[in-house]
Each structure stands twice: as structure tokens, then as C-alpha cells.
Amino acid sequence: AKLILRYLKLVGGDVSSYNSYPDYYGGSILIFEGGELNLYSSIVFNNKAYYGGGISAGDDSTNKNAIMNIYNSIIHNNEATDRGGGIYAYGDSNTNRNAIMDIYNSIIQNNKAFQGSGGGIYMVNADAIIENTKIYDNVAYYYEGYDDGGGIYMAYTVAKIDNTKIDNNQAGEDGGGMYIANSDVTMTYTTFTANNASDDGGGMRIYASDVTMTYTNFTANKASDDGGGMDIVDSNVTIKNTTFTGNKASDSGGGMAIYDSPVTLRQTSFINNDATNNGGGMAIYDSPVTLRQTSF
Fold first, then answer.
1. Distances from the Cα of 243 to the Cαs of 57, 84, 170, 191, 270, in angstroms?
2. Cis omega (within 30 of 0) on the bond before 22?
3. Separation of alpha carbons 283 and 275, rounded Å
4. Largest CB tally within 10 Å, which of 131, 157, 280, 290?
């Protein structure tokens, strides 16, 4: 089935208190057991669900594709009791990423996940494209270690992110702006500004992933532990034409902290980053790091 929605306001849906699966998914829209949503120039506002306060797509027990295409729309002020304050996308498996999410020219703002990860967007076993989009003021609140990715949380996902602003998001644990785990991500012309993590990776935390980023800047992000701008663990990361400016870590790696990861930096600058203990610009632990035309 295909659903096309244009010029709508979807306001005030609340399925957060429902008890049966999948009734408590998707405060405004649920795509379940396959289907396609095309949302144009619409507002998804002030909705609530247990998973996916605004929109939920996917089912981890079917081979049918759940497709979500969002164009020129605003997803804001939605709440999830658990994960995915604004959007929740969950595919079948890491070999069958049948949750497909494309977002263009949109705003994901002021969404909240109270007991789980992904204040703005939560995606697992997904294929995603995010372009020309603003993701800001979203929160994943602290809750027993399931509170990563204030702006975006992704795991077992292939994603392309271009010309996107990820600003002023907060995570109760890791990845204030974005948390990436076991994923393959390409990022270009994207900014991370004034994001905050109560543990590691103020701007971004990368774990067990392959990530390439070009013309992607990190400014004034903060971590209460390691990696003010970025925290990298057990990953393969290439960074080109990027700046890290004014990021802060309360422990190590004001600009960047690297653990057990091969990292290559080309034409990258570290400016006025700060760490309370080790490595104002960069802290490196058991990692082969290649620097080319990089300044501190």
C-alpha cells in the first residue's frame, strides 16, 4: 500500500498508553508489515507513542519493505516513552535492511525520547538518505544506559547524509548530535554545533562502524567524558576537509578521542579545542592515525 499526504497538519495523536503490539508505535503514522509513505510539505506535531512519537516504520519479523519518504516537512515536539522521539525506523535484520527512510529539505526539531535512544531519529537495520535537513533541539534523556544519540541514533544501518545541520541536541549518555554503531555512513557538507553528551562524543560517537566524512565541521560541542567533538571506538574512519573548533571534553580529547581505531585525517584543522585531562585537540589510544595536511 502507498500513502501520499500533502499540506497536512498531523497533531495530537497519542498511542503511548496502548498495551498491544504494534498499537503503541507511531503517534501520528505507523507503517507496519510493509507499505510506503510519501509525506510532502506537512507538519507532524505534538504526537506521542511508546516507540516513534511522530512516525514509526518497519517490523523486525517480515521481509516486506517499510518505506518512508519525507519532503519539505516539519517533525517537531513529538515524544516517545522509549525510542525515537520524532521518527522510529526498524528493519528486519542487518542483512535485510528493509526499513527505508529518505528525508529531504525537512526539519526534525524538539523531539524527545524519555527512556531510550534517538531523540530526533532512531533507526536500526535501515537504509537512509538525509539531505538538506535541520536536526536540532532534540533530546534522548538519561535512562539506564539506553539514551544515546540526542539528534540521531543509528545501528546496523547504511546512511548517506549531505548538507545537514545537527545542532543543540542532547544525549543522556553518548553521542549528543549523533550515535553510530555497526553502520556504514558517508557524510558531506554537514555541521555539528553545540551538541552535548553526558558521557562520550559531544558531537558524535562512532562505534564499530565505517565512516567517511568530507566538509563536515564540529563546533562548540561538549562531552562530560571523552571526545568533545567526536569519540571513535573500534571503527574505521576517514575525515577530509573538516574543522574541529571550540569543542570541549571534561576528560580526554577535546576535539576528538580515538580508541582502537584506524583513522585518516586529510586537510583537517583543530582550533581552540579543550580537554580537562588529556589531548586538547586529539587523544589517541592504541590506534594507527594518519595525518596529512592537518593542523593543530
1. 35, 29, 21, 10, 6
2. yes
3. 9
4. 157
Ramachandran sector of residue 227 (left: φ over 0; alpha: ψ -120 to 50; beta: rest): left
Taking the alpha carbons of 99, 81, 79, 220 in that order, is the dihedral positive or negative? negative
**Segment 90-98 mean pLDDT:** 91
- Alpha-carbon distance 258 to 279, whole Å? 11
- CB-count exposure of residue 210 (10 Å: 0-12, 13-18, 19+): middle
User: For the CA atoms of the chain, what is the radius of gyration?
Assistant: 18
Length of the chain: 296
Q: By the 8 A CB rule, do 170 and 140 touch?
A: yes
Instruction: Tell me how far apart the alpha carbons of residues 68 and 5 are, in angstroms, rounded to a whole number.
Output: 12
Neighbours of 126 (CB within 10 A): 27
pLDDT tens track for 137-191: 999 998 776 799 999 999 999 999 999 999 999 999 999 999 999 999 999 999 9
d(CA 249, CA 255): 8
Q: Which of 79, 77, 55, 78 is nearest to 67 (CA)?
A: 55
User: What is the spatial distance between Cα 225 and Cα 157, in angstroms, rounded to a whole number?
Assistant: 26
CA gap 15, 288 in Å, rounded: 49
Whole-model pTM: value is: 0.97
Beta bridge partners of 188: 162, 214
Beta pairing partners, 193: 167, 219
Q: Which residues contact 36 (CB under 8 A, 6 or more apart)?
A: 1, 2, 3, 65, 67, 68, 69
Q: Strand, helix or coil at 222?
A: strand
